[in-house]
Amino acid sequence: MLAVDIGTTSIKAIEFAPGKQALRIMNYGILESSGYLARANQALQTSSLKIFEADIVELLKTLVRQMGAGTKSARASLAPFSVFTTVLDFPQMSQKEIQQAIVYQAKQYVPLPLNEVWLDWRDVGGYQDEKGFTHRKIMLISVPQEQIQKYQRIFRAAGLALKSMELESLSLARLFAGDPTPSVVIDIGSRSTNIVFMENGQITFSGQSDFAGSSLTQALATSLGVNPLRAEELKKERGIIGTGPNYELSTIMLPFLDAIINEVKKVDFTYHEQVSIARKAERVILAGGGANLLGIEKYFEREFGMPVAKAAPFLKFEYAPDIQPFVSELNPLMSVALGLGLGSKTNS
Ligand SMILES: Nc1ncnc2c1ncn2[C@@H]1O[C@H](COP(=O)(O)OP(=O)(O)OP(=O)(O)O)[C@@H](O)[C@H]1O
Ligand SMILES: [Mg+2]
Q1: Percent composition of the chain: helix, strand, coil (DSSP 3-state, to 5)
Q2: Is the distance from CB of 176 to CB of 339 less than 8 angstroms?
Q3: Which of 63, 94, 116, 196 is in the most buried spot, having the most CB atoms within 10 Å?
């Protein structure tokens, strides 16, 4: 099975096969479209739902060919900006009754006509009110049919069979199955940051911010008067640990990291406002390419006042020893694709 994560500026794919004790990573690849750095509007996907299909098809074909992937069966993740989620409150009822009630409620909440979306839902916890009545918190997920059809077209054109799709946030949360610590995963991509609250590998709330890796690159380019390719290099080389001449780089980037932190705090506030029973997050996990920014863990730890760690999903898989030197850097980058792969066992 091939897990494919189509980000706004890169495509990541991992081929899995059953291993001895866990899934085995057979092959992986990342193809970055660096064109977006030279031309600000050249992202692969934009939040306006416009996907540059032909470009993605070509990149995906190239990636799969170069990886030498042996399978055509694929599973894809869906970016948060292409999906609408909300948490609803229901009295205690059977799964079947919830299903019926959701379709009814969805009309009020989903921003598109229901015949144009694919609907799903997750039970994200229950609680008792002061009168002793039990309630269920249900997360409603809706994906525009148009988005699903686009993905089907892209995979077909790339010669792959798209077997299933899943929200990025569900893939990320799955990596923490069996870990009861309430946590927030901050996936800092290129164009967007995905904010996922979770417990026991189950997503409990999620949000999104448009401040992300490319905000840092753009800030450097503008402030230092260098081109975006150079700014990207400087960001990756120096990060925010700078002292002396590198100190300036940190001061340029920090306001954008603060913007991400503020967005996480806002989502946290809304979460607790909507789900009064929610437990406070006790830990921050960083994912996405932005998690590789040098110094980010320390900075976030200070700002959030709780432990911060980079995601380490490779631990859950078997892989050839020659990948080992790259694992630390790949861990956050490949988190979504790895979580997606783990889900193929249950095929949710
Ligand atoms: N070592 C590094 N230091 C700082 N930033 C880095 C490093 N490595 C990668 N990045 C940044 O990570 C971002 C790409 O991350 P990722 O591949 O997770 O994004 P994406 O999935 O394509 O985008 P999105 O999730 O927004 O759709 C880029 O902004 C890149 O500059
Ligand atoms: Mg991403």
Answers
A1: 45, 30, 25
A2: no
A3: 196
Domain residues for 212? 176-310
Atom number in ligand 1 closest to CA 214: 29
In a domain, 284, yes or no: yes
Give how many domains the chain has, as a whole number. 1
* pLDDT tens, residue by residue, 282-303: 999 999 999 999 999 999 999 9
Q: What is the pLDDT along the chain (348 residues), one digit of tens a residue?
A: 999 999 888 899 999 999 999 999 999 999 987 665 555 545 555 544 344 788 889 899 999 999 999 999 999 999 888 888 888 888 988 888 988 888 888 888 888 898 999 998 888 877 788 888 888 888 899 999 999 999 999 999 999 999 999 999 999 999 999 899 999 999 999 989 999 999 888 888 999 999 999 999 999 999 999 999 999 999 999 999 877 777 888 999 999 999 999 999 999 999 998 887 788 999 999 999 999 999 999 999 999 999 999 999 999 999 999 999 999 999 999 999 999 999 986 443
With tokens 């905000």, the residue in question is: 215
Rounded to an integer, what distance in angstroms lies between the CA atom of residue 206 and that of residue 184? 9
CATH of the domain at 285: 3.30.420.40
Cα separation, 163 vs 74, in Å, equals 6
Q: Which ligand 1 atom sits closest to the C-alpha of 191?
A: 26
Report the half-sphere exposure of 18 (CA within 13 A, side-chain side).
2
Strand partners, 131: none
Phi and psi, residue 179, nearest 5°:
-110, 105
Question: Is 280 part of any domain?
Answer: yes
The CA distance from 277 to 203, in Å, is: 15
| CA count, 13 A, side-chain hemisphere, 34 | 7
Ligand 2 center from residue 210 Cα (angstroms): 12
- CA-nearest residue for atom 28, ligand 1, is 190
